[in-house]
């Protein structure tokens, strides 16, 4: 057994499962019975007494092994709860090698914590069959979520990614409900239970346990077919929903069949299953899950109503559909060998998901969006001392949930983008296709991908990429100017700006993307393409204009001299959207870390008042919002920064107006929503007055069309901030009664704009009532935590209600608990709060969310250091520029 991981004994491996789920109680207890027969291969020459499998919250009733014609019954069944295992002891030594069949009878429970085999509550539309599970208030659908290690919550199994097998599944269900699984229905068998039958599904291909899935409910669907033929047929593609919602699946459906065809061509391997089902699940811990052939989604990631949904969800649905479809090849067909290489699945699917959306919607400027969302978010987490490498050691399956984070997804996809830009997209995708062909229906490692890409490109990709994948952090490249040349120095970027020598030993391969020339419009690529040492000098640079990391394709920060930053700001109209995002993002990060200064950032951003691009504005408003957030506890500086921000956005919000015109671009609509929200919260009079006028028309019922769906969030938030309790109650009622698929998320975020401790506590109590689904409990808390007026109430609530509400409600699913804490507590900039949080969790068993606590601590202390260092210079700049009296 490898000492760096805790895995099952290697002498027994599964090859096939036959799984039957039956006697499911659709009301009351939600218990079920199950039988699993596992065909195994045993290679233990010296014999064995017992067999160990994974099992969690499952009661094994009996187990028998048929080996070499002899049948052996388990005499003793014991559980190791901590390691989530069951040991079947046969009471004697069995001398056997070869194929053997293990049959286990067990019972389980359909839980409500969004892990394993679980139930989701919902309010139905239309008539519901009597058999559908319900209580006094809600109806329920059943579905599964097995990644990373929760197949073992549904049935005993060998629950590790490289223990692949085929699966035969059968589900006993009421005749008036629908059963789904990875494969199409094969036959229906009669059942002994009155009103029930058993649905039997076709055999799956070889796959990991975490990709198995099934669902039971009152489902209906919309259907389309691929344009390409697969084995002579156009594949059926369906979006399933509970009754009454199927029409909202049409946008996802339209994207899905096109993307299946596109990926089949890009990867040079036909989609390998006979169908693609997408299922909207009412309660869901993540955004979606790539189960092979039965992809599950939270409703807001797959359903979209053009009449009532905010347009931002159009983008979200398209991207999440593409991301999960990418996994059908990259993850499902070829699976990482062990959880330490999770990034192979998630980093690639993130990059290629955006790649597909760029193909379908070139007018969305997908790579600009990627740079302002994915790259900048990855920078944020990776600039902490407590980050982790992209490829991180995972001792056991229970550790893996915490690396489903921005490093695996967003840093992973950012370095994939960096590599594909360097190799060229065509060469890169050829290498990926070769990798998939070589390892299909099997498992692979990072090195397998690098060797396929090296072969396709003729370059040593391992040398380029090893430090990016296996070392923590990323560099900042500091530029020094001399006539006709520039000096470059790379060092590890830490938000706290205090990397110690032993933390700064990595030498990254850095693609420079250096352009220079007599002007921004005529600059061309420099012959020096990469930096491969700590310090370097690049000669023959025309310093009239030069720029490093063109289009921000390299995953690093650039620290220019202050005069150069000013010149780049002056040349901004000749820069790409990605360049502008990089310029502002780097100036902000360098200010926080102390490599640059906040006055330099403020002066640079002031020039962007005439900017018209949504993605650039999004970066500016995020960064200026963060600066305001850090200095919010210092009254005069806070007031000066508010005036600065208001002056910055006023011309833009007045220019963009309130009306959505026919044929207007998606990005312009997003810009309008962002500017109205920001200007209204800053107190821009015209925006506030118009928002309140529309709010009253909408809430009174006089004119429900007074608020465009994309502006609901902004208008609700402005009303709550301005009017307080009366508006809060109106939006709370909207939350309880909305039928819009995105309405609940939008209301929760708006309610986070409350301005008094009493309303903040009332809102937090509401969040922890059964009115708010577990999947959404972080949605309002994110906004509360960014709200300087009441931020401290989030910490007070966590501290005072930890034992009574928070831990009991969220601890069943540590992913949800960790997310709630990280987003709720990471916006403080006072060391005293960091000390309190640290002390509170000392002595508690924090396994499953300890990394989140490290991120919170590091972030708060970095911001506290920044605030202390820059307070006086920010005050002086604000005074000198007329923002402070």
Automatic annotation (TrEMBL):
Q: Provide the cofactor list for this protein.
A: Zn(2+)
Where are the catalytic residues?
A: 324 (proton acceptor)
An annotated GO cellular component of this protein is: membrane
Membrane spanning residue stretches: none
Q: What class of enzyme is it?
A: hydrolase
Query: Bound how, and how many: what does the cofactor note say?
Result: Binds 1 zinc ion per subunit.
Keyword check for Zinc, yes or no: yes
Which domain of life does this protein belong to? Eukaryota
Q: Which residues bind Zn(2+)?
A: 323, 327, 346
- Which residue intervals define the domain Aminopeptidase N-like N-terminal in the entry? 13-211
The site feature described as Transition state stabilizer is recorded at: 409
Biological process (GO), any one? peptide catabolic process
Please list the residue ranges annotated as the ERAP1-like C-terminal domain: 545-861
Q: What is its EC number?
A: 3.4.11.-
**Matching Pfam families:** ERAP1_C, Peptidase_M1, Peptidase_M1_N
Instruction: Name the keywords, alphabetized.
Output: Aminopeptidase, Hydrolase, Metal-binding, Metalloprotease, Protease, Zinc
Offer an example of a GO molecular function term for this protein: peptide binding
Entry's InterPro entries? Aminopeptidase_N-like_N (IPR045357), Aminopeptidase_N-like_N_sf (IPR042097), ERAP1-like_C_dom (IPR024571), M1_APN-typ (IPR034016), Peptidase_M1 (IPR001930), Peptidase_M1_aminopeptidases (IPR050344), Peptidase_M1_dom (IPR014782), Peptidase_M4/M1_CTD_sf (IPR027268)
PANTHER family, per database record: AMINOPEPTIDASE, PROTEASE M1 ZINC METALLOPROTEASE
| Similarity comment: family membership | Belongs to the peptidase M1 family.
Protein name, entry field = Aminopeptidase
Task: State the species of origin.
Answer: Periconia macrospinosa
């Amino acid at each position: 057994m490898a000492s760096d991981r805790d895995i099952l004994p290697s002498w027994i491996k599964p090859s096939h499962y036959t799984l039957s789920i039956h006697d499911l109680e659709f009301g009351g207890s939600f218990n079920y019975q199950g039988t699993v027969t596992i065909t195994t291969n045993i290679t233990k020459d010296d014999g064995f007494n017992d067999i160990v499998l994974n099992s969690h919250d499952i009661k094994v009733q009996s187990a028998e092994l048929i080996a070499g014609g002899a049948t052996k019954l388990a005499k003793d069944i014991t559980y190791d709860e901590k390691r989530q295992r069951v040991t079947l002891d046969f009471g004697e030594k069995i001398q056997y090698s070869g194929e053997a069949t293990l049959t286990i009878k067990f019972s389980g429970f359909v839980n409500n914590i969004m892990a394993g085999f679980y139930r989701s509550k919902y309010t139905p539309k239309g008539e519901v069959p009597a058999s559908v599970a319900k209580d006094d208030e809600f109806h329920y659908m059943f579905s599964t979520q097995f990644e990373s290690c929760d197949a073992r919550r549904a049935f005993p199994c060998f629950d590790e990614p490289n223990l692949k097998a085929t699966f035969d599944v059968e589900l006993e269900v009421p005749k008036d409900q629908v059963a789904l699984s990875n494969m199409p229905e094969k036959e229906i068998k009669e059942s002994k239970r009155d009103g029930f039958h058993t649905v039997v599904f076709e055999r799956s291909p070889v796959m990991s346990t975490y990709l198995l899935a099934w669902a039971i409910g009152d489902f209906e669907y919309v259907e389309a077919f691929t344009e390409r033929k697969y084995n002579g047929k156009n594949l059926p593609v369906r979006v399933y929903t509970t009754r009454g919602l199927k029409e909202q699946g049409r946008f996802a459906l339209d994207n899905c069949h096109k993307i299946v065809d596109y990926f089949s061509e890009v990867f040079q391997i036909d989609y390998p299953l006979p169908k693609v089902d997408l299922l909207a699940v009412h309660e869901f811990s993540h955004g979606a899950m790539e189960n092979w052939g039965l992809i599950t989604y939270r409703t807001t990631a797959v359903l979209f109503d053009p009449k009532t949904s905010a347009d931002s969800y159009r983008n979200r649905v398209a991207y999440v559909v593409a991301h999960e479809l990418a996994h059908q090849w990259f993850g499902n067909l070829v699976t990482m060998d062990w959880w330490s290489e999770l990034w192979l699945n998630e980093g690639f699917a993130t990059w290629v998901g955006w790649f597909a959306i760029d193909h379908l919607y070139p007018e969305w400027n997908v790579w600009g969006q990627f740079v302002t969302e994915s790259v900048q978010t990855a920078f944020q987490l990776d600039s902490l001392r407590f980050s982790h490498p992209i490829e991180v050691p995972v001792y056991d399956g229970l550790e893996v949930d915490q690396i489903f984070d921005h490093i695996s997804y967003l840093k992973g996809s950012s370095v994939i983008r960096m590599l594909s830009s360097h190799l060229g997209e065509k060469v890169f995708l050829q290498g990926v296709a070769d990798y998939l062909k070589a390892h299909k229906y099997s498992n692979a490692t990072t090195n397998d991908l690098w060797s396929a890409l090296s072969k396709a490109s003729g370059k040593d990709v391992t040398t380029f990429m090893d430090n990016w994948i296996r070392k923590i952090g990323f560099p900042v490249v500091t530029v020094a100017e001399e006539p006709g040349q520039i000096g470059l120095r790379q060092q590890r970027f830490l938000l706290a700006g205090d990397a110690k020598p032993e933390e700064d030993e990595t030498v990254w391969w850095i693609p420079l993307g250096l352009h220079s020339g007599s002007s921004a419009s005529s600059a061309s690529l420099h012959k020096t393409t990469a930096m491969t040492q700590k310090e370097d000098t690049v000669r023959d640079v025309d310093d009239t204009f030069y720029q490093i990391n063109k289009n921000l394709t390299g995953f690093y920060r650039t620290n220019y001299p202050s005069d150069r930053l000013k010149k780049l700001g002056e040349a901004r109209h000749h820069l790409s959207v990605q360049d502008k995002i990089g310029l502002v993002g780097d100036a902000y990060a360098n200010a926080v870390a102390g490599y640059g200064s906040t006055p330099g950032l403020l002066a640079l951003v002031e020039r962007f008042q005439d900017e018209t691009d949504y993605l650039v504005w999004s970066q500016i408003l995020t960064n200026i919002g963060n600066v305001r957030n850090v200095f919010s506890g210092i009254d005069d500086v806070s007031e000066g920064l508010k005036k600065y921000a208001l002056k910055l956005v006023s011309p833009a919000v007045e220019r963009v107006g309130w009306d959505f015109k026919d044929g207007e671009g998606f990005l312009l609509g997003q810009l309008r929503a962002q500017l109205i929200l920001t200007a209204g919260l800053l107190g821009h009079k015209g925006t506030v007055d118009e928002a309140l006028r529309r709010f009253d028309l909408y809430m009174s019922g006089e004119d429900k069309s007074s608020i465009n769906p994309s502006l609901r969030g902004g208008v609700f938030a402005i009303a709550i901030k301005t009017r307080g309790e009366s508006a809060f109650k109106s939006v709370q009622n909207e939350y309880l009664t909305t039928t819009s698929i995105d309405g609940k998320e939008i209301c929760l975020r708006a309610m986070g704009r409350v301005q008094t401790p009493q309303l903040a506590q009332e809102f937090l109590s509401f969040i922890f009532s059964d009115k708010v689904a577990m999947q959404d409990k972080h949605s309002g808390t994110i906004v509360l935590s960014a709200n300087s007026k009441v931020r401290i109430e989030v910490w007070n609530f966590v501290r005072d209600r930890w034992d009574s509400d928070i831990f009991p409600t969220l601890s069943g699913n540590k992913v949800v608990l960790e997310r709630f804490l990280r987003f709720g507590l990471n916006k403080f900039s006072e060391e005293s709060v960091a000390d309190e949080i640290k002390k509170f969790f000392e002595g508690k068993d924090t396994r499953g969310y300890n990394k989140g606590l490290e991120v919170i601590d590091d972030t708060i202390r970095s911001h506290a250091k920044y605030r202390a260092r820059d307070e006086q210079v920010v005050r002086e700049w604000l005074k000198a520029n007329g923002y402070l009296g």
